[in-house]
């Protein structure tokens, strides 16, 4: 059985965040959804739990990061193609996200990123070959 990753992210407005991630084309797992959180299915092995701040605090005694002032995490997601990278960034921008950089082409890897409405950074990349070993 493959290992699965569930990423828990605090969100200020659950409905707004759900709308954002659905606009990116991700589905919702209703089994893990209530008025305090929802599960966004990124792939068969990756899910993102969007949790209200109150619900997120149930899992940690530490303060929730103010993402307008500090970075709490950078999430990186591999994509099947350059077009998928560009398409997800375009969807994110159209749905209310932002970006702080331009696409980068390293020859073997193409990348770009977006920031979701709650300030979480998402790096997207497509690798078409591994870099040469030194």
Task: Please count the helical segments.
Answer: 3
Specify the overall morphology. globular
* Major beta sheet, strand line-up: 1-4-3-2
And the CATH topology? Answer: 2,3-Dihydroxybiphenyl 1,2-Dioxygenase, domain 1
Given the helix and strand composition, which structural class is it? Answer: alpha/beta
Unreliable segments of 5+ consecutive residues:
none
Overview of this structure, please?
By secondary structure, the protein is of the alpha/beta class. The chain has one domain: Roll (2,3-Dihydroxybiphenyl 1,2-Dioxygenase, domain 1), CATH 3.10.180. The chain has 3 helices and 8 strands. The strands form 2 sheets. Strands 1-4-3-2 form a 4-stranded mixed β-sheet. Strands 5-8-7-6 form a 4-stranded mixed β-sheet, with helices on one face. The mean pLDDT is 94.
Question: Quick recap of the structure?
Answer:
The protein is α/β, with parallel strands linked by helices and 134 residues long. The strands form 2 sheets. The protein has a 4-stranded mixed beta sheet with strand order 1-4-3-2. The model has no long low-confidence stretch (mean pLDDT 94).
Q: Which properties best describe this structure?
A:
single chain; 2,3-Dihydroxybiphenyl 1,2-Dioxygenase, domain 1; four-stranded mixed sheet; 21% helix; globular
Write the layout of secondary structure elements.
Blueprint: E1 5-11, H1 14-23, E2 27-34, E3 37-41, E4 46-52, H2 53-57, E5 74-78, H3 82-94, E6 104-105, E7 109-115, E8 121-127
Parallel strand pairs: 1-4, 5-8
Antiparallel strand pairs: 2-3, 3-4, 6-7, 7-8
